[in-house]
Amino acid sequence: MDNIKKTQLFNASCVALVVTALAFATRGSFVEAWASEFNLTHAQVGWIVGTAFWGFTLAMVFGGPLVDIIGIGRIISIAFFCHVTGIILTIIATGFWSLFLSTLLVGIANGSVEAACNPLITSMYTDQKTRRLNRFHAWFPTGIVIGGLAVYLFKQVGLADWRYAMGIMLLPTFVYGYMFLNKQFPQTERVVSGFSYKDMLKACISPLFLFMAFCMLLTAGTELGTNQWIAALLANVSDNPILLLVWISGIMALARQFGGTLIHNMKSTVVLLTSSILAFAGCILMGYTQGAMVFAAAGIFALGIAFFWPSMLGFVSENIPQSGALGLAIMGGIGFLGGAIAQPVLGAIFDAQTAASVPAGQTIEVLKAAAAGTQEAFTWAQVTLKGGALTLRMVAVIPAVLIAFFTFLHLWKRKQV
Questions:
Q1: Rounded CA gap, 151 and 83, in Å?
Q2: What is the pTM of this model?
Q3: What ranges do the domains of the chain cover?
Q4: What is the pLDDT of residues 354-369, one digit of tens each?
Q5: What would be the CATH architecture of the domain defined by 6-416?
Q6: Residue 113 pLDDT > 60, yes or no?
Q7: Using an 8 Å Cβ cutoff, are 52 and 106 in contact?
Q8: Which residue in 376, 382, 379, 384 sits closest to 352, CA to CA?
Q9: What is the percent of the chain where pLDDT is above 90?
Q10: DSSP collapsed to 3 states, the chain
């Protein structure tokens, strides 16, 4: 590994992850804009946004096994091509299906980044996997902060069209493409360790791996599903609800960037259990509080979900090393599958809870079409706020289930020592 420039490859991976985060952050702020401009329901927008997660899962399922065969570099090349194409097609989209296709390509690009960069990092830093994965994944919420602030600033200067925010993604995309250009990549840890492909496949169907894969479905659904909808669910808490997503993501970024050493010295099962408790508390509090207190509740939620993704990957890589790149790919794919499932479900729940909150004698159509400043517009704001709060209370069921699962995992691991 003498010719492998670890720092340069790690930094390039972080920039690539920023692009995936920008796609996540900006699309989260486009929910209402797309619904209005293209006359779509929240459920339809949920299907569009969720397509990014399906594309991610597709890339992970096929890209993960191919990492060992065609190499990390070629998977990154696929990511670059799909990012550029998907971004451009989104900007020129004209309706549901064009948004659906462009979002699918962006999702494939995002999944290819994860499929390549996770095994790249664990192969380069075999003695500090969880710490390095946390620092790497700190750039996901950092990218969300950058994207969220960009959306906010564009609106402040009168560039409210969502296409401007989408266009800024091209800059870091070309940057990471250049940073990876002509670099030499290491072999994956599985290959270096001598585990056979058969060993890898067996490890990926072991009881412990399947249990962690199911938990990944729930942890990712809690993190990605809620964050993608947070601006819409709490649109009437602030004049700029995207700042709530920026707040959550900023806390996550700081926790992952500077909490790596703490996490490195703690049992991963304790980290996951504590995270579940905080995520549950945060969801409940966001569903019951209003005004500035929502930001405090969101801070608790952010600390809860901050270590979910990297700690799940770190646990699998450290406790089931035979699973190799395929194991990491499956975990990432399962994670985004959880996010994909959550998008239309959350959209449908939001629609249902909003409809149920409409006062007797009034209709959604009339309230939704009300002119700004009227009593009907005020009522509609209160209705959507209540619908969002009720949706968040329902989301709290997922981390509640995780509390039980990770308690079991912690007790089981203690018996193994």
A1: 19
A2: 0.75
A3: 6-416
A4: 888 888 877 777 787 7
A5: Up-down Bundle (1.20)
A6: yes
A7: yes
A8: 384
A9: 25
A10: CCCCCHHHHHHHHHHHHHHHHHHHHHHHHHHHHHHHHCCCCHHHHHHHHHHHHHHHHHHHHHHHHHHHHHCHHHHHHHHHHHHHHHHHHHHCCCCHHHHHHHHHHHHHHHHHHHHHHHHHHHHHCCCCHHHHHHHHHCHHHHHHHHHHHHHHHHHHCCCCCHHHHHHCCHHHHHHHHHHHCCCCCCCCHHHHHCCCHHHHHHHCCCHHHHHHHHHHHHHHHHHHHHHHHHHHHCCCCCCCCHHHHHHHHHHHHHHHHHCHHHHHCCCHHHHHHHHHHHHHHHHHHHHHCCCCHHHHHHHHHHHHHCCHHHHHHHHHHHHCHHHHHHHHHHHHHHHHHHHHHHHHHHHHHHHHHHHHCCCCCCCHHHHHCCCCCCHHHHHHHHHHHHHHHHHHHHHCHHHHHHHHHHHHHHHHHHHHC
* Confidence tier at 88 by pLDDT (50, 70, 90): very high
Asked whether the beta carbons of 125 and 132 are under 8 A apart, the reply is: yes
The first and second tokens of residue 363, run together, are 């209709």
Residues whose CB falls within 8 Å of the CB of residue 180, separated by 6 or more in sequence, listed in order: 9, 12, 16, 73, 76, 80
Mean per-residue pLDDT for 169-196?
A: 82
Q: Give the tokens for residue 79.
A: 């990511």
Q: Which residue has the tokens 């989209």?
A: 93
